[in-house]
# Entry
Amino acid sequence: MTMDADNKKREDVCPGKKPAEATPLIQLQGARASAANGTPVPAPLDLATVRAELESTQGPEYWRSLEELAGSDEFRAMMHREFPKGSSEWLDSVSRRGFLQMMGASMALAGMTACTRQPLEQIVPYVKQPEDLVPGRPQYYASATMLGGYASPVLVESHMGRPTKIEGNPDHPASLGASDIFSQATVLEMYDPDRSQAPAYLGDVHSWKAFVEAIRIPMSGQKAVDGEGLRLLTPPISSPTLADQVRQLLQMYPKAKWHQYSPLHRDTVLAGSQMAFGQAVETQYKLENADVILSLDADFLSAGFPGSLRYTRDYASRRNPDGNMNRLYVVESVPSPTGVKAEHRLPLRASEIETFARGLAGTLGTGPSGVVSLSVEAGRYLEAVAADLEKHRGACVVIAGEHQPAVVHALAHAMNERLGNVGHTVVYTDPVYASPVDQTASLRELAQDLRAKKVDVLVVLGCNPVYDAPADLGLHDAIMDSGTTIHIHHGLYRDETAEICHWHVNSAHPLEAWSDGRAYDGSVCLVQPLIAPLYDGKSAHELLAALMGKSTITGYELVRAYWQGQSKSSDFETLWRKSVHDGFITGTQFAPKSVSLKAASFGSASNAAASDAAVEVNFRRDPCIYDGSFSNNGWMQELPKPMSKMTWDNPAWIGPAMATRLGLKSEDVVTLEVGGKKIDVPIWIQAGHPDNSITVFLGYGRRIAGRVGTGAGFNLYEVRTSDVSWTASGGKISKVGTTYKLATTQGYQTIETMTVNRPVMREGTLEEYKGNPKFAQEMTEAPERDFTLYPNVDYKDPNYNKLGYAWGMTIDMSSCVGCNACMIACHSENNIAVVGKEQVVHGRHMHWIRVDAYYQGNRDNPSAHFQPVPCMQCENAPCEQVCPVGATVHSTEGLNDMVYNRCIGTRYCSNNCPYKVRRFNFLLYQDWETPQFKMMRNPDVSIRSRGVMEKCTYCIQRITVARIDSEREDRAVRDGEIQTACQQACPAQAIVFGDQNNPESKVSKLKAQARNYGMLSELNTRPRTTYLAEIRNPNPELEMHMQHAERG
Amino acid sequence: MSTQDIVLDREGLAEVPVIEPGHTLASVTEKISDIVLVRPLSIGWVAGFLACASLVGVLGVAVGYLFYKGTGIWGINIPVGWGFAIVNFVWWIGIGHAGTLISAILHLLRQSWRNSINRFAEAMTLFAVMCAGVFPLIHVGRPWLAYWLFPIPNTMGVWPQFRSPLLWDVFAVSTYATISAVFWYTGLIPDLATLRDRATTPIPRFIYGALALGWRGEARHWHRYESAYLLLAGLSTPLVLSVHTVVSFDFAISIMPGWHTTVFPPYFVAGAIYSGFAMVLILAIPVRAVYNLKDMITERHLENAAKVMLATGLIVAYGYILEIYMAWYSGPKSIDWFTVHNRFFGPYAGPYWALWICNIIIPQVLWIKSVRRSPFLLFLISLVVLAGMWLERFVIVILSLHRDFVPSSWGMYYPTKWDWATYFGTIGLFLMLIFLFVRVLPMISIFEIRMLLPEAEAKHK
# Structure
């Protein structure tokens, strides 16, 4: 698990902040140098217009639009003016490559000419090589990424001063080395060429100095009135430094107001703890101690749920059928990966979950007793769950999801208390947010103040309320009509809010700036920059300091000074260096807090009476692009959503029963009417979705996101109002009659779709496993090894395989929670291209590892299974035999190697691959031109050209590094020394890689397990990647009923 | 297979002659060579040629755009990595089979009726192989490196991988193309000399003269010619069987359900001859009408070709039925049964059943003698058979790939306009070459027809 010390040289000083001669940003400055030669005089059709046109095109159609645009006469004329030398390229055909070169330069140019002054920086090569920096060897720095106000501790891989990959921080309990999709994707976010590249006033580019100058008078005006007209809007923050700065600001301007809002707020969680304990507390779960877990609409295994990485690890640690297996019950309103993993899943409409919770609390003897109306099935489920929870007092846990109303949270607290779980499986601490408030109310107040024209200075810090605020608050108009003297937007992108604010200040990315934040357990993680800001962005700390008149102070000084102030230690320098090195400040996690349950009144069932006929509308965050902040992130757009395998869009989910009743098919467009507002969205029929309920996902339909995100999907914020954060009742849907093409990477498939005697996915219950541990192996018969005319390769023969390694992998499907972290990690590690929606529709996505989802049984409540599928690295590889040019060959260590340079692209190998894990560059998918992307890529992995086949390599570049290291040190590669990217990211530790020739290695031991099987091994492919069959631990009582119901 | 039919026909020679009576040695020569040397350009020919040439233009654009953008302009994807390119390749190669069969095998079997159509069938073979040869080279992802498929010594360390059926293909097809061209040219030499001698203007005389390689019609020349031609016929004969057998290995050697079948080699060869004869008829029927050659390409030829089609069509039907039987025999839960079931009822059931109708059901009318002797009906049936054989390759390539072992990776293949443009472009190329051929070379072998005349018979005896 722990990485080799050599691999993980961490620095306590950020490379970007080293003196300029130490880390020259050659690429960046090269771009600047070329920019300086460009002519800044705007022509009639200038670059800005082109950019505007580009921005107005949809992400997936981007390249097509570019070419269309490039064909226009005006454009050609403009290019002549801008590039007299290169314009001859346009005289022959429109070469995409040439065009991209131009555009790459002109994009950079457009950003650069915008600056009023070119910074004078010199490119100086190393005179003396910095210590520890070996060219070609990456360095790792501890830092943190932020999501929803919670910090994720990470290690950032840096190649010669360029951050290229995010890994989890193995030393921090919130990560233990794992990382989620959002952390991983921040690399691409940082290099996103569409990021805002300069401060702007009314859309025109200005300098930071001009901004500082511009705010001086309004701010001093505010000083005179104690900040009466000053409003600060931020997302909820956990950063102690930032919170302290806000406090200072509020001291300086006592009448100013601080508002916090995130569209994915946790208001109900806060209100629930207020209701139960009379105070705001953070709830943490210790799932490693839980024998029985009940989730009330809590998708705690998915990224975005605070602590999900740790929860996944702890949950998965109890999935070994040879150990003490836990049991998961999930009652949920929207199918989720957590529901997939449940032994027993009960789909209920969101409002019915409250009824269920009340009923369960009543049965357990806490909270309101009384009759609740539930279906027979739900009633039986409730009884079984109650009995199971009672049986495991002190070793069970009830988790309520943030989309459930406060009362469900309060009931969960009460049940955990009643079941004696507090202190064992449930721990309460101080809240992670520096100042938890009811965010919806906070934003509403701001909107009212804006309307009442009480606001003179509005500072919007790192959020995009014009896009994501509840529709009824009308924030766009409120800001436009407020008559505010000055509104300031600070963010990574010139987004919808930036568009209407007077001033926009481009933010530094977390990988470019100093900051801090708290992880879910309260520990303080330090964010350190890995590179000097690409576009001279300013962090929130620096902006706040500027508001207080300290425009020259740096983020580094601010963060360090704050912690120096907090430190009681005499030797702050040592503490600081250690903390920056570790990525967190030891001992800052919150201590468990003892809270006592109020004699609470849980009120009467509020909307339990919701009639069956009314359609409920659930608003949920998108599993990949979150609240919309990742919408310009190609990796995330193309990442198949865990349940639907949908990419690039957010269709509304309905259940199969409802679809049949309404005569709807997937891809039909419907008009959704809720709260008096209407929107047209396409439909996706999601198996397991409760009836009479529709789920829509937020974050899409961005108007101004960038070339990738703009225009993709549908903006459901338009129908979300402030009184219904997560669930609205009384929705109506009506068929429009048109259809909308959706891009999925996998159709709806059930296990039964497959011919039964070739089960690719094998699973059984604990009982079946105990009865016959080898059940999975016995489902098919693999041919005998010696059943061949030809000699078998002996991978243990030192004459053949000199070093004696035989690399192998196991994937434990009991553990896998389908979180997709492996897919994004692979994307990032292996420089995989994003192909766009149209190509995904054609079936040409490029993921080297995919997570297949199979459903089983009744469509209204199926059981489902995840199966990650990388290359199987078959010893008898069908692909190798058919390649006419020997571009895919076998290594002596048993790997199926791909020689890109030799590939001519017959695609025969892919046709003959029974697992279909090979990916082909049908077009030139890689962006070879954009300078930012050149900096982002992993230099150890080649960029594939068009016409070349590619596939999973078991991260051969990592194997090679370890092999070289071991040879230099004259030793064997240690078990665990090599982690593939997917393995390293996996929070469930479902993927294990190692040397299967070494009987002591972890992978050998797993392969020796009875439930280890090779997918399609009956084809005699002898896969090196094998699976551990999924074992479930159902409640026998319920299982009987379920089976009965299924038969019925 | 077809030998018996032919023998029977030979017995009935008096009833249906190979050429109509009334021809003399001189009239045969004059009639055939005048098409090339005397007949003026007709509007019909020019229009047809230009129409086909414009299709070649389409092919040029399609291939040019393909080279510029990449194979992504086609409908292929993962899992369907091969699409129209391979379908068309196999289709064209199959069509090419009739020529060699007619020229070589029938020559060895002394089926002299073939003399009227062999030249023409050989030209067709050559052009079909050219059309086929386009596809393997352009369908690769990096066509500028397609030469790596050939074992050319180099310093890059690039060497073909000889276990791959695609490589066998390269050898099979290139050998076939070479032998076909040589065979065709050898057969042309005496006629080129005739054209040289009859040409009235200097340029054709020079060109035909150069091509005739100094043929003077000496007994020594004839002796050597006959030996060489017989040897080449002997060389070509195994190729008729081997080329399509090797092409079928592209599929049979793989492990994909629907491809991995031992019945493929014979059934591919039969299918190839089936489509080849259909193409011969499609070309012969209009040509004999337009150039008034009904006396040389008689109903007897048409009928014989129809009989060959009927026989090979039945072999193809046997192949289809055997595939279904094998799947059934593998058991209802086997992947093979799933594949067959998917062909019957899956998303591409339409093309599959159309294949049955075109290839098996409609051609059964060839059992009727009057149909076999009706040029119009034969023309229609041949078109249907060609469509059917194309569908067969579509079914084999696409239906087998689109749903294989792992359901999560299933997909669909929809041809794009570029797929169609390339396909129609090669049809244009083929027809354009045929148009050229009938105007610049004797489309019927003059000297061989002369041998069929009673005078020749008498001399031989």
Observations:
- The first helix of chain A runs from residue 26 to 37.
- Confidence is low (pLDDT under 50) at residues 1-47, 57-116 of chain A.
